[in-house]
Amino acid sequence: MTALRTLHDAPWLNSGPATRVLALLNEGGEEARVVGGAVRNALLKLPLGDLDIATTALPEEVVRRARAAHIKCVPTGLEHGTVTLVVDGTPFEVTTLREDVETFGRKAKVAFGRDWQRDAERRDFTINGLSVSSDGVVHDHVGGLVDIDARRVRFIGDPDRRIAEDYLRILRFFRIHAAYGRGAPDRDGYLACIRGHAGIAGLSAERIRMELLKLLVARGAHAAVQAMAGGGLLSQLFGGVTYPGTLAAMIAAEETLAHAPDPVLRLGALGVAVTEDARRLATRLRLTNAEFRKLDSMGHRWWRLKGMDDPIARRRLYRLGEARYRDRLMLAWARDGRGADAATWQALVKLPERWKAPVFPLKAADFIARGVAPGPGLGHVIALAEDVWLAQDFPLEIDVLTVIADQTVARFSREHRL
Question: How far apart are CA 169 and CA 207, in angstroms?
Fold first, then answer.
């Protein structure tokens, strides 16, 4: 039986580009509704994101109507019934209702249809199976309204079958629960994820990476990760030891600083203790080069940042640069644990806000003038002088710099018998 509820306070149903698309597709005996995540988020009073639209109209008819109305139309997936309409710069993914003819994983054979219930039953979770028509009526064919009220993430129909259709739904179960659920994960869904875990091996690393990074920034990320660890799923994904407690400490540190959640920082907290971990994750998850470099830097001797005084912290900041300094320091803080001295760590993280590293004032010409020939030796002398300058806490006085240059050249000359 279909449950109904009226969606109040939805201005996007009363005016704007979405109303234009719905009006276009609701003519001539056809029907269109907003479906999926936008309906879920509207009911939960959360930001909407993209508005996806389902329609009884066949893809060719959607294209015909859009062109007649001078609406930009992009055939993004005609074979799957999907067309993207762009109205006032806003894209809307419009998909014709579908029903399964044969089911064999993600490559299920489907046919276009006109049955809203059968279309809803193809979706993953009940809270994603809702639709809303242009009059604001929410249509529920799968029990999603009850689960919205309970903040419960539950598979539509048989969980094992839903998972077998696409094993990425295992990760999506935990990600959607972390974002929208409350309390422990639905037991039937949780047990089905554990039973189906072997199917994860057949997923592309890129899809796993995308889903995992989304999960890590969700409101309930730590609880979801703990549940995954309890079911043996984390070790399968990471191929090594994971640290849910360090993730919890990283989340607490971000909250202390009022920083937005950083998915790569959280990934590092969960899976990186040394640089070898970063390389393993980069391979298993097909991380971008920037993501790998960030994790690799975080894992490089992060323990040397513990217990720093300000002079040492300034030297680390100078050597690492602001971004790498903060990232590595955040991992050191998280690995120090949730009971760590937050005030001390916070002061260290905020060092770049109160101190800017000066540029090393001695130049190659200063050493050439002292008899050092251009070449590899000159670079070595400059590096030695910079080390002394850092050890003396960045002096800028001419007389001090002169002594540093003279003594460095003298040392180099003794060592190389110049």
Answer: 11
pTM: 0.89
Neighbours of 67 (CB within 10 A): 11
Q: Which domains occur in the chain, in start order?
A: 3-150 (3.30.460.10), 152-238 (1.10.3090.10), 241-252+262-273+283-357 (no CATH), 364-416 (no CATH)
pLDDT digits (tens, 9 = 90+) for 70-125: 999 998 887 788 999 999 999 999 999 988 665 555 555 668 989 999 999 999 99
Helix pair 310-320, 376-391: axis angle to 10 deg: 150
Report the percent of the chain where pLDDT is more than 90: 87
Write the pLDDT tens digit of every residue in 192-209. Answer: 999 999 999 999 999 999
What is the rounded (10 degree) CA torsion for 79, 85, 90, 96?
Answer: -60
